[in-house]
Design goal:
The complex is a heterodimer of chains A (81) and B (756). In chain A, 21% of the residues lie in helices and 26% in strands. Chain A contains 2 helices and 5 strands, in the order ββααβββ. A 5-stranded mixed sheet of chain A has the order 2-1-5-3-4. The longest helix of chain A has 11 residues. The N and C termini of chain A lie far apart (36 Å). Chain B is built from 21 helices and 26 strands. In chain B, strands 3-5-1-12-9-10-11 form a 7-stranded mixed sheet, sandwiched between helices. In chain B, strands 7-15-14-13-8 form a 5-stranded mixed sheet. Chain B is globular. Chain B starts with 24 loop residues before the first helix and ends with a helix. In chain B, 57% of the residues are buried. Classes of the chains: A alpha+beta (81), B alpha+beta (756).
Chain lengths: 81, 756
């Protein structure tokens, strides 16, 4: 199981929880299972997200591995100018 | 990803880090460079766009019949020519609605129809003959007003997301964001001093000198070409193809030279309209925005309203930090408030922190990205309060920041734990900088601030072809907005071991190269640069294989060193080294053309920090401000072309000076923009500015083979606060509203005098 932290305003879609336990070995599995477990997150997942793993932010990278001790944060999809 | 085993910091660079002349320089100063409006085509028509004079109006009827009958008019398009093909993609639907109004015009300048005619005079005449039946509606342009109950609601479909319970009525607040950790209320109870203030910033335009321009040419077979001034021609191709129902393969887009972007050219405005006109007229159509249109109908950044509250102990340690940010991003969802909220407190090591953001729509043009979207306004508010707190606890501005600065192992305010970061080094260098010790003159004040930005990588594809004479042709797909072609040539030359002037880089069109994300997010020197390095390594593998073939020895027995293939050791044979030119000359006989490629989604860009120092002089009689000294200190990881890095630092500071002192979108009570031109919307010019001093720090990014970090955006994050702190020090009163124009400063001085 991986512990993933979502940002505060997603909590209405996760039963009020900011920290979620998800069985996922990589980013793709994490995003798929987040959408399956919390359907309210699907619009945000469709708009796009980034995933921070141990301090490094990934905008893409479905196959980035997640260890059970990884620090994982769901973040809005990075944009820039 | 295979990275160089050599530690970036230990690498002895030969070419990278030098300052050669830019390859596009002579073309640009002699007028040979072709920008967006410079293209022509046989039979070309002139496209012009009719825009709403109203800030908010229902479009009851559009009558183009008289215009269609005007001699020389070849095509007219309206909302009827842009059926919704967005397939439920809300973001793309907003783009569709923005490029051509549908049931309502949502801001002054919103496109409502377009004409292609044989010349500009005919096109203008035709626009006058188009009759629009408007029902004018109440409007709102201020972010705080737009959030109030009873404000005119732009969209009946917006129900604020991210709040509980879900609203039952539509409003102008599209979404609520919240970031942070700890318990801010408990943190404030531990504080000895708390400062709480509200700040406002006005919308500013990116101010690129070249207006949007394109030439569209769609043939009767449905195949199209587009020449366009953009930061991302692959994005333009894909967006236009989807909006117009074209196969992506049928649209070839070529990026022109670009006269500035700064984030404002990362979307489409006129391009789908020009293509639709060309498709309808069966002729090439050129559309060039006027400056008035650039201001009214392309994206400025958001205007904002921000509350900040920070508590500290007497010893100068922050116990809690809280902010509420309200950003309006024009008539559609998508202001950069989430990035304002994420970055607001990112410079500090905080146990208790919270940032709440509200994305708000108003009757203004759809905002577009502007360097480090959302971060400068948040930094203005937070760094102003930080400065005030430093003075209240009796510490220097810089020591207070050093004491509370984020460092490796800090849990960032937006969540993840930082790895190695460069904030403290910029602060420590700033503390030693002569600027901090220099005396100040009468009516002068000194300010400082720190800034943070994320940076990212993105999808990137590069081809590197070795020519038969050993020179190198490099094809990249990221438009060059900041000197990237020179940087790419430097990195290719470094890797191959050949001189810089033996490499020439071009920005290839969309049919010549795989997909590339837009040039944004400070990503190009990082991501395209890494792809260039890896493409060069791919070419080196092939070059060494050809040398092995020529020498009839195993490929493992060949190494590449300083531009030559050499036997790996005495056991491999005694062959004289083969230069890249000697190997390339025999390419036809040894297997054909030699090329290296790399395509990937780059990640690991690494976050970036900067510290700025400014001296400002305020005239107490007029309220006019002069920036007398300015210094930028920023971590570049590795400066590939230091002059360009310095240019990015200086450019960010200068745009920040304009944002802080002069620039603002001014709306009348009728919701119309009052200053849509460079005479009334005043960006800084050379005579307004001191020489901006720069200090490049090089703390290698472990995610790049040479240690490169993006530098294009962070430099615009600290200036608003830096200048506000300097002006506040000079005036002796805290300024909380941008721009700090003379009338605002005089009013603040009057309030101060009345209080005394």
């Amino acid at each position: 199981m991986v512990k993933v932290v979502v940002w505060g305003s997603l909590k209405p879609h996760t039963g009020g929880k900011a920290e979620l336990e998800i069985e996922a070995g990589n980013v793709r599995e994490l995003l798929n299972k987040l959408g399956e477990t919390y359907p309210g997150l699907k619009p945000q997942l469709a708009r796009g997200v980034s995933v921070a793993i141990d301090g490094v932010i990934f905008r893409d990278g479905w196959h980035e591995p997640l260890g059970k001790d990884s620090e994982v944060f769901l973040l809005p999809r990075m944009v820039g100018g | 990803m295979p990275l160089d085993s050599t530690q970036p910091s230990k690498r002895d660079f030969k070419v990278v880090g030098t300052r050669p002349l830019r390859p596009d320089g002579i073309d640009k100063v002699t007028g040979r460079a072709k920008f967006g409006a410079d293209a022509t085509a046989p039979g070309m028509l002139v496209g012009r766009i009719l825009r709403s004079p109203h800030a908010h109006a229902r479009i009851k009827k559009i009558d183009t019949s008289k215009a269609e009958k005007l001699a020389g008019v070849k095509a007219i398009v309206t909302r009827a020519d842009f059926p919704d093909k967005t397939d439920g993609d809300a973001g793309l639907y907003d783009v569709l609605y923005n490029i051509m109004a549908r049931e309502k015009a949502l801001y002054e300048g919103h496109a409502v129809a377009a004409v292609a005619a044989v010349d500009a005079a005919t096109a203008r005449e035709a626009l006058k003959l188009i009759k629009i039946d408007y029902e004018v509606l109440p409007h709102v342009t201020d972010v705080d007003e737009a959030m109030k109950p009873g404000a005119p609601v732009l969209h009946s479909t917006i129900f604020t997301d991210g709040v509980e319970p879900k609203p039952k009525k539509p409003s102008n607040v599209t979404r609520r964001y919240e970031f942070g950790h700890g318990d801010v209320e408990a943190g404030f109870k531990k504080a000895d001093i708390v400062v709480q203030r509200t700040f406002k910033t006005e919308a500013t335009h990116q101010g690129y000198i070249e207006p949007h321009a394109c030439l569209a040419n769609v043939g009767p077979d449905g195949q199209g070409e587009l020449w366009v001034c953009t930061q991302g021609h692959f994005m333009v191709r894909d967006t236009c193809a989807r909006l117009l129902g074209m196969d992506i393969s049928k649209l070839r887009v070529t990026a022109s030279e670009i006269g500035g972007g700064f984030g404002g050219k990362t979307t489409v405005f006129i391009e789908p309209v020009a293509l639709a006109l060309s498709r309808k007229a069966n002729r090439p159509v050129k559309v060039v925005m006027s400056r008035d249109e650039v201001f009214k109908a392309s994206g400025p950044t958001a205007s904002t309203s921000v509350d900040v509250k920070i508590g500290v102990t007497k010893a100068g340690r922050i116990t809690a930090a809280d902010a509420t940010l309200r950003y309006q991003g024009g008539a559609f969802a998508g202001s950069p408030v989430e990035f304002g909220a994420m970055s607001a407190f990112a410079c500090y090591d905080l146990e208790n922190v919270r940032a709440i953001g509200y994305d708000v729509v108003t009757n203004r043009p759809k905002q577009a990205a502007y360097r480090a979207p959302g971060a400068p306004m948040a930094a203005f508010a937070v760094e102003s309060v930080i400065e005030e707190l430093a003075h209240k606890v009796g510490m220097t501005s810089i020591d207070f920041r050093i004491k509370n600065a984020a460092r490796e192992g800090t849990k960032s305010s937006y969540g993840p734990t930082y790895g190695p970061i460069g904030l403290l080094p910029t602060l420590e260098r700033a503390k030693q900088h002569p600027h901090f010790q220099a005396p100040l003159g009468p009516n002068q004040g000194r300010g400082m601030a720190c800034g943070f930005w994320f940076n990212f990588g993105g999808q990137t594809c590069v081809s590197l072809n070795v020519n038969v004479d050993g020179t190198v042709a490099l094809s990249v797909g990221t438009p060059d907005i900041g000197g990237s072609r020179a940087s790419m040539c430097l990195m290719a030359a470094e890797e191959l071991g050949i001189p810089y002037d033996k490499v020439r880089a071009i920005v290839a069109d969309t049919s010549s190269l795989g997909y590339n994300d837009v040039t944004d997010g400070s990503r190009t020197t990082f991501a395209t640069g890494m792809a260039t390095i890896l493409a060069a390594r791919d070419a080196i593998k092939k070059l060494t294989a050809r040398a092995a073939q020529i020498w009839s020895i195993p490929v493992e027995a060949v190494t590449w060193e300083k531009g030559y293939a050499k036997p790996a050791g005495s056991n491999a044979g005694n062959f004289p080294p083969l230069s890249i030119a000697e190997i390339a000359a025999q390419a036809g006989a040894t297997g054909g053309p030699i090329a290296g490629h790399h395509e990937y989604s780059a990640d690991g860009a690494g976050v970036s920090f900067a510290t700025h120092i400014c001296d400002a002089e305020v005239d107490p009689e007029t309220g006019a401000t002069k920036i007398v000294r300015y210094t930028v200190l920023q971590d570049a990881g590795k400066a590939v072309h230091p002059s360009y890095v310095e240019g990015q630092f200086q450019g960010g500071a200068v745009q920040g000076i304009g944002w802080a002192l002069n620039e603002e979108y001014i709306y009348g009570k009728d919701g119309r923009l009052q200053n849509a031109g460079f005479l009334d919307y005043r960006i800084p010019v050379c005579s307004d500015l001191p020489m901006i001093d720069t200090v490049i720090l090089e703390i290698p990014n472990p995610g790049h083979p040479y240690g490169v970090r993006g530098v294009g955006e962070t430099s615009i994050v600290p200036p608003l606060a830096t200048i506000a702190n300097a002006v506040s020090a000079a005036a002796g009163v805290r300024l909380t509203s941008l721009p700090m124009s003379p009338p605002k400063i005089l009013a603040a001085l009057d309030r101060k005098a009345a209080a005394e």
